[in-house]
């Protein structure tokens, strides 16, 4: 399967409508009276319908001298929010950001005028249906822990920020994880729900078994959408484990996929390998955002 990247171009021609054909690019131009914004062709699995979400007024992103559209979106990766148990091992500790620290992060974003967006916003931007904030950022939460609902959600509401929650469907309702009612509530509040497989499987390890791989990647999406949590357009690789076969399958069913690789999401990022910034206790968010 062909790798698909995220090139974005704006062609500005005063007073005329323009349609451009790009052979074999996998990119479909969107014609407007002010120019053409190119976007990936949506698959039948992930057509976005956000008509119920109020449109907002945003300042336009940077346009370079060559006319290409440029953006920079830090994606922050969180797991647990709150405190860890007294017998926690090093992994559990490293996955935990205290409630106090998380609120400090939100205060920093507020002070620096960052606005948290979802991948729905990015998809609409690619399609030419909306602009991004001048300083976009993404807040993502992996695994679906119950402290995401009890600790993170009230602060997200308080500071007016949205987030993406990656849910492993078979873990929902287990001890320490959110219930389906919690996940549905997140969706109702305007947050995005993404897929994190069914069992938090190591996808690279099981990639030789097509049936298992389909079950973890594709069935998980269908389960979430059957709960009316969709459209599910984004995926997150458990523990950041994947290979090219896995990415190809994910890109067939999802518009975007987030990794654990460090970096900033830009117009040059591959849509199935979005980089992230791992958030841990002691990480200096001010420095990361410089």
Automatic annotation (TrEMBL):
InterPro entries per record: Glyco_hydro/deAcase_b/a-brl, NODB_dom, Polysacch_Deacetylase
Gene3D superfamilies linked: Glycoside hydrolase/deacetylase
Any GO BP: carbohydrate metabolic process
Keyword set, alphabetical order: Signal
Record keyword Signal present: yes
Main subcellular location of this protein, as a coarse class: secreted
NodB homology domain sequence ranges: 135-290
Superkingdom, taxonomy of origin: Bacteria
GO CC annotation, single: extracellular region
Gene Ontology MF term list: hydrolase activity, acting on carbon-nitrogen (but not peptide) bonds
Pfam family, one: Polysacc_deac_1
Keyword presence, Signal: yes
Subcellular location, record wording: Secreted
UniProt signal peptide: 1-19
Name this polypeptide is given: NodB homology domain-containing protein
């Amino acid at each position: 399967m062909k790798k698909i990247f995220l090139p974005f171009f704006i062609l500005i021609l005063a007073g005329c409508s323009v349609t451009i054909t790009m052979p074999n690019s996998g990119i479909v131009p969107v014609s407007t009276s002010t120019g053409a914004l190119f976007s990936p062709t949506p698959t039948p699995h992930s057509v976005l319908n956000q008509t119920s979400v109020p449109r907002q007024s945003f300042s336009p992103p940077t346009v370079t001298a060559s006319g290409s559209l440029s953006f920079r979106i830090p994606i922050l990766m969180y797991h647990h929010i709150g405190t860890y148990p007294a017998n926690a091992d090093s992994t559990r500790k490293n996955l935990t950001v205290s409630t106090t620290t998380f609120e400090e992060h939100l205060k920093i974003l507020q002070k620096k005028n960052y606005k948290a967006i979802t991948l729905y916003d990015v998809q609409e931007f690619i399609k030419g249906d909306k602009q991004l904030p001048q300083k976009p950022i993404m807040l993502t939460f992996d695994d679906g822990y119950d402290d995401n609902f009890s600790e993170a959600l009230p602060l997200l509401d308080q500071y007016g920020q949205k987030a993406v929650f990656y849910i492993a469907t078979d873990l929902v309702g287990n001890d320490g994880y959110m219930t389906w009612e919690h996940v549905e509530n997140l969706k109702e509040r305007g947050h995005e729900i993404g897929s994190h497989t069914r069992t938090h499987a190591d996808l690279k390890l099981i990639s030789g078994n097509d049936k298992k791989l389909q079950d973890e990647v594709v069935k998980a999406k269908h389960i979430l959408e059957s709960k009316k949590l969709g459209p599910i357009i984004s995926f997150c690789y458990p523990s950041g484990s994947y290979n090219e076969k896995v990415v190809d399958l994910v890109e067939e069913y999802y518009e975007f996929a987030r990794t654990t690789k460090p970096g900033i999401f830009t117009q040059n990022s591959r849509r199935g390998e979005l980089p992230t910034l791992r958030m841990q206790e002691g990480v200096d968010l001010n420095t990361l955002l410089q």
